[in-house]
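Retry 2 of 3 after timeout on previous attempt. Resubmitting structure tokens to design endpoint.
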């Protein structure tokens, strides 16, 4: 993948991460009874965060010492 594709993918992941955050907050604020669903959403959010960190590190150019 080239940098433009990686940047697009990274932006898509950021949007999904932000959306999940809003859904999780809404479920918690409204006292949603399905705690397993909330936990699954939180795990998905963490996986997205890990994927974003990996992509960001791939975008950093390698520098020879």
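Retry 2 succeeded. Sequence:
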């Amino acid at each position: 993948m080239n940098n433009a594709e990686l940047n697009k993918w990274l932006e898509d992941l950021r949007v999904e991460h932000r959306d999940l955050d809003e859904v999780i907050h809404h479920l918690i604020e409204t006292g949603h009874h399905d705690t397993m669903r909330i936990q699954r959403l939180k795990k998905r959010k963490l996986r997205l965060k890990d994927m974003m960190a990996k992509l960001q590190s791939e975008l950093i150019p390698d520098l020879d010492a």
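Attempt log closed. The mean pLDDT is 93.
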